[in-house]
Amino acid sequence: MYQLNFPNGNVQTYSSQGELLNAARLLGGEAKFINGKIYAFVPKK
């Protein structure tokens, strides 16, 4: 499972990297790789 961490402390998990990256795009930002299967959501300014 891939994990997307949000600045407000929320965490969402996805079954694939593509799903995670697509979700981040749809939410108006991007996923920044941290390590392993963990990403941080970075809103676009």
Give a topology summary.
Blueprint: E1 2-5, E2 11-14, H1 17-26, E3 29-35, E4 38-43
Parallel strand pairs: 1-4
Antiparallel strand pairs: 1-2, 3-4
- H/E element order: EEHEE
As a whole number of angstroms, the C-alpha radius of gyration is 9 Å
- H/I helix tally: 1
> Which residues sit in consecutive blocks of at least 5 with pLDDT less than 50?
none
Give the proportion of residues in helices: 10-25%
* Overall form: globular
- Strand neighbour order, sheet with most strands: 2-1-4-3
Distance between the termini: 28 Å
Report on the architecture of this protein.
It is a single chain. The protein has 45 residues and is α+β, with helices and mostly antiparallel strands. It has one helix spanning 17-26, and strands at residues 2-5, 11-14, 29-35, 38-43. The chain has a 4-stranded mixed β-sheet with strand order 2-1-4-3, with helices on one face. The longest helix has 10 residues, at 17-26. The mean pLDDT is 97.
